[in-house]
Amino acid sequence: MNTTAQSADILVVDDNPDMIHLLSKLLTDRGHRVRAAKESGLALKIAQSSPPELFLLDINMPGMDGYSLCGELKKFEALADIPVIFVSGYEEQENKIKAFDAGGVDYICKPIHSEELLSRVNTHVELFRLRKQLQEQVAEKTRELAETLTALRVLMTQQQQDSKETEKNILNNINSLVIPFAERLQKTTLTENQQSIVDMLIANLKQVSESLINNHDLLQMKLTPVEIQVANLIREGKQTKEIASLLNLSDLTISTHRKNIRKKLNIKDRKLSLNAFLSSL
């Protein structure tokens, strides 16, 4: 991890003017921009007005202490991801645990060791910037995927697909390129809003894919609507009894539909699994 971060915007919150002066000098001498507040209420206002890239919080302050201030900061979406380092004279383990429980990312005990402070500050600023960059990249990819989905929907609505080959190409692109990329994106670090957008995007893509499969392959093979339902459930791996229960039909009726589907699809090999055949379409 590179510990020589470029100039960062840091908010120091401490009721001790001497400590504010010390921290400010150490940080500004290394090129950082430092703002200060002597009490939590003012710090909260400053942060909401112009969010910093890192907070240095004292614990023992009049009114709202450092733990409570950290908890308040985490309530605001614009401030929730900004790292909080506690700087305190308390060395007890319980104080450190309480600081991390409140949302802090690090804990530095007084007296201050300048190189330790600077190293930790630079590390957490760099991590914050990397997370922010990743979130921006995810948001951009999400917008690109959303635009792709919109284009696909417009294309299918307006053109109704000129040929079977065109539909197959679109289906292959969705299943082999777009959906796998969206699912990889789903596993990255996302905000709650971004996660919701990606989840909705994947669900819509799968719905479009299923619609293409139904309309393109099965309907052209002249399956009845019920046979299409049965075929889709078979493709999902459902057995006869499960399908009968889901469609509120008898096992015998489902068995008859299975035979009809095999006949219409011209599956002559009795050893060939209907599930395997449908999955290969």
Give a concise summary.
The protein has helices at 17-29, 40-49, 66-73, 93-102, 114-159, 164-186, 192-218, 225-235, 240-247, 251-264, 274-279, and strands at residues 9-13, 33-37, 54-57, 84-88, 106-109. With 281 residues, it is an alpha/beta fold.
What's the SSE blueprint?
Elements: E1 9-13, H1 17-29, E2 33-37, H2 40-49, E3 54-57, H3 66-73, E4 84-88, H4 93-102, E5 106-109, H5 114-159, H6 164-186, H7 192-218, H8 225-235, H9 240-247, H10 251-264, H11 274-279
Parallel strand pairs: 1-2, 1-3, 3-4, 4-5
Helix pairs in contact: 2-3, 5-6, 5-7, 6-7, 8-10, 9-10
SSE-based structural type: alpha/beta
Distance between the termini: 49 Å
Mean pLDDT: 85
| Total of DSSP H or I helical runs spanning 4+ residues | 11
| Cα-atom radius of gyration | 30 Å
What does the main sheet amount to? 5 strands, parallel
Strand order of the largest sheet: 2-1-3-4-5
Low-confidence stretches: none
Number of strands: 5
CATH homolog superfamily of the largest domain:
Response regulator
Q: What's the number of domains?
A: 3
> Percent helix among the residues?
55-70%
> Which percent range describes the beta-strand content?
5-15%
The CATH class assignment of the largest domain is Alpha Beta
Shape: elongated
Describe the structure.
The chain is of the alpha/beta class. It has three domains: 9-112, 3-Layer(aba) Sandwich (Rossmann fold); 138-208; 225-279, Arc Repressor Mutant, subunit A (Orthogonal Bundle). 63% of the residues lie in helices and 8% in strands. The protein has helices at 17-29, 40-49, 66-73, 93-102, 114-159, 164-186, 192-218, 225-235, 240-247, 251-264, 274-279; strands at residues 9-13, 33-37, 54-57, 84-88, 106-109. A five-stranded parallel β-sheet has the order 2-1-3-4-5, with helices on both faces. Strand 1, helix 1 and strand 2 form a beta-alpha-beta unit. Helix 6 runs antiparallel to helix 7 and helix 9 packs across helix 10. The protein starts with 8 loop residues before the first strand and ends with a helix. The model has no long low-confidence stretch (mean pLDDT 85).
